[in-house]
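#dry-run=false #mode=assembly
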Amino acid sequence: MGLLISCKDASRLISRMQDGNVPFAERARIRLHLLFCDACSGFERQLRFLRAALRSYRQ
Amino acid sequence: MTNSDFASRCNSHRGYLLRVAVLQLRDNDVAEDVVQDTLLAALQGEGGFSGRSSLKTWLTGILKHKIVDVIRRKRREPVLASLDEECQIDDLDALFDESGHWENPPADWGNPESALSQLQFFDVMQMCLDKLPPNTARVFMMREVMDLTSEEICKELSITPTNLWVILYRARIALRQCLEQNWFASSGRAA
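#status=ok
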């Protein structure tokens, strides 16, 4: 995997980041990707919102 | 504290426990049984309650174990047989074009947090959760509602981390799509 990754790969890594160990190199690739990609930045915000929504549902 | 005091304090959390169990198990009868078991185990194991955590947290811990037991038993039933199918990522490739860009990029949800104060939003979310494939839903709830770690879920269900990531990815993709179509893109947001 090069330094630049596709939205397809980024979206999978963004989801994985919510579940624990993503190696440093891959986290760096995501950060870089998110700097330039509005779609994936939106996806990341949406996943964080989903988690918050499920937490508050449980209460 | 007398026994009956403790029992009634435990009982006061019944509604909450039932809610968590129904969310996870999607079967009211089984959920009732599991909550009953949990309260019984709590009363029998009163000594195990140190008072360091809240009673609610302690009861939720017992409930988690009871729910995992049920899921583990179900694992052997045909209903979980399709788990392997839900672990395949190939069909999710269709979300992206050949160069790996989104076919339909996620829309801007504005300030989604404001939805959390609207009861209707949670009806829509429940509807979206109900539409998930059964095992995907179960695994996703173990992660997000019961707050189990990836390692715990893999161990309980005997699946690999890669399988788990695909299932959770599938659930999140489906849920965000469903919420976008049924809430954020519709009048619900303005309501």
